[in-house]
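Summary for the steering committee. The consortium agreed at its last meeting that each partner would contribute one worked example illustrating the joint modelling workflow. Our contribution is presented below. We chose a case with several input lines so that the handling of multiple components could be demonstrated. No manual editing was applied between input and output; the record is shown as generated.
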Amino acid sequence: MNDTEGTSEKLALDPVALERAIAANDGAACESWLDQAQADEIIHEVAQLADADRSALLGLLEPEAAAHLLDLMPEAHAIHAIEDVNISVAAQIVEELPSDERADLIRSLDAETAEAILAELEPDIGEDVRRLAAYGDDTAGSIMLSEYLVFADSLTVRELLADIESNAEKYADYNIQYTYVVDNEGRLVGVLPLRNVILARRAAPVRDVMIADPIAMLDTASLDDVRSEFREHPFLGFPVVDAEHRLVGVIEASDVARADIEEADERYRQSQGIVGGEELRSMPLFLRSRRRLAWLSANIVLNILAASMIALHQDTLEAVIALAVFLPIISDMSGCSGNQAVAVTMRELTLGVTRPNDAARVLIKEISLGLINGSALGILIGGVAYLWKGNLFLSGVVGVSLALNTVIAVCIGGLVPLLLKKFKADPALASGPILTTITDMCGFFIVLTLASLVLTSLT
Amino acid sequence: MNDTEGTSEKLALDPVALERAIAANDGAACESWLDQAQADEIIHEVAQLADADRSALLGLLEPEAAAHLLDLMPEAHAIHAIEDVNISVAAQIVEELPSDERADLIRSLDAETAEAILAELEPDIGEDVRRLAAYGDDTAGSIMLSEYLVFADSLTVRELLADIESNAEKYADYNIQYTYVVDNEGRLVGVLPLRNVILARRAAPVRDVMIADPIAMLDTASLDDVRSEFREHPFLGFPVVDAEHRLVGVIEASDVARADIEEADERYRQSQGIVGGEELRSMPLFLRSRRRLAWLSANIVLNILAASMIALHQDTLEAVIALAVFLPIISDMSGCSGNQAVAVTMRELTLGVTRPNDAARVLIKEISLGLINGSALGILIGGVAYLWKGNLFLSGVVGVSLALNTVIAVCIGGLVPLLLKKFKADPALASGPILTTITDMCGFFIVLTLASLVLTSLT
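What follows is the complete predicted structure of the assembly.
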């Protein structure tokens, strides 16, 4: 009996079974497959489906199950899948999402689909989504939630508790640790921890139990300001108000954490040359190719620029062909040293311990480190050159070049993100290419110029 | 009057004023400086202090203020600063930290200091820290909290509320949205949302109001399992139990988010060659130099290995010196293409849409992309070569080499993280160096071999 169960479970979890159920338009079979699978399994298998199958699957499920599935998909898949589902089904699914995810999704859809879905939503939900989706990407409004408890300051504790009781189902997914109190114009006048509610006399007016004039954030505040506010006050959440001090949302610490994770992921992606958004290998080949190529094309131009420095010194190179072996080493090692400095500056900017105006301090710290590491690497490569060719001049040219260029690389690597940040450019994206171009040019120039100075001793 | 206030405030926030207050051992002045400064200001200025001044500052503050300051410092600073404070003061500060940060900090201190501080802590706190600090880095136990409400299943709702009332101060920082119910052996038997408490009859036994047999995590579960569990059930938090099903802690979604941010930061750091932990420029020069150099030394050996491929073909290079201009370009561009593939695989691994066993699929996807991008880049560089030298053979050799090597680079870049993950190595750390070494060797080999085949047409 147990064996049979094991087998049937294993069969049901066969990824092909999911594809078959989708092909057969068998919603019940899809739902049962998803019910039996672990979340990790679902994420992996649904990602392997063809785009059309993912959309079809969403359409076959109950809206609530579809919303849960959407939540498990990488964002890029979710957006694409919902765009291909029948509009009225899409609207039903969107209604099941939490308010912040709803707005995120609508913001990411193409304008036409977004408008069509908005028109199909229940009027009050549609209005809420429009309101949230209108906030700019980098604002408090873009990460706040609409799911919070709000009460009029004219109520008593008894009336408040009665409201919670009669709306128990609606509030089931709300964080109710804190409730908010507004006046009759909707302006925020207090925060009421649920703890206080429990311990208060039932007849007491809410106004007497609440914490008056709570700290609130403006809906148009930047994410950086939101982060500062959370650092300043270690609260679990903050109320968000508009310019008229009307309560418009709530931001929890976990919303900020999510924004931080996205930023860290993007920093990594961009530093590795993945630009234009997340790439998944299930995306169309030409989209993936085009995006990667855009960055590579800019890079190859910079590379040719750097290599032109070699072209200018061909005669030196021709006389001492051994130098050609060391050019790529000097280029690569300087790039590595410089990238370490870039990473440290990027981290210090994120942590807030370094600011764009701290260039002088960064420079001093990097020069001293560059001198040590440059000397060590220079001696190493110089030693290898001597062992290979037995020429002290060659060894000296190569060693000194790498040493000098290491100092240059760490200084540039340390400073470039600060400068980019100062001029409001994206340091994660541009620091690498700028760094390697400059250090390559300097490296090639130094080694070939030094070599030309002692050319007779090299040959 | 207002003007005067403005000036005095500005004066007080002068960073030099903080240093002066520390030098004068003036705790009150330090505290007033910190009170007036924004959190961002504090983070930045305190990071600029000398190590000794940071420790001195901690010692001058009230333990609660010192704990808050410790919380604002980058972890590396916090650890160092607390190690240099008088042990009994350090213990007082540690007592003011939340339970998870306490354990994190103690785990990070050198063993001797940790032991000394533990001995000075209040016995029950000391025991709690020892218990938490004993968990391995990658376990549920290492990120769980001890601050939660727990009640015996024999209580009534009235008794439970009375406990909350009489411990209101102690519970002030607790998340009380959920409380936990245990039997007389401390075994978890239920979860009790505070909402249910509010709405329950005061005389009802807790046992009747709670949700029985809640989902719990094992304290020894891995962080990956914790993440899966949160994906599986979108709860705000989970109770954590030991092997005897005794309740030992609580994990909230925000604890997992914090672990995710740390992981993303480490991925970025390691991909850029910052190994051995966070580097801040305020750390000792030789420590920073040594850590960076460790990674660079391994890299230079790999670089020399790759460049030896050029040394083997010096005769070809001597005949066609123009090739020397293209070697660094081919090396760098292949590295860029390969790193893009590394980044995509790393992201797909994190998202869970690709697993170590999906190598075949990754390979197919990367080969097709590599053919397109390789052709585009090959034509580009071949065109540049033709414009420069007017030799179609040179142009062909360079173009075909970059095209071929791009295909190789994206395949290796896509696969290396999967292989490293499969063999339990750290993909973020090793993928880059392995990739560039192999692609450099292949690139140099291809271009010089092709050139030697058509040597007569090149010269």
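The first strand of chain B starts at residue 149 and ends at 152. The first helix of chain B runs from residue 2 to 12.
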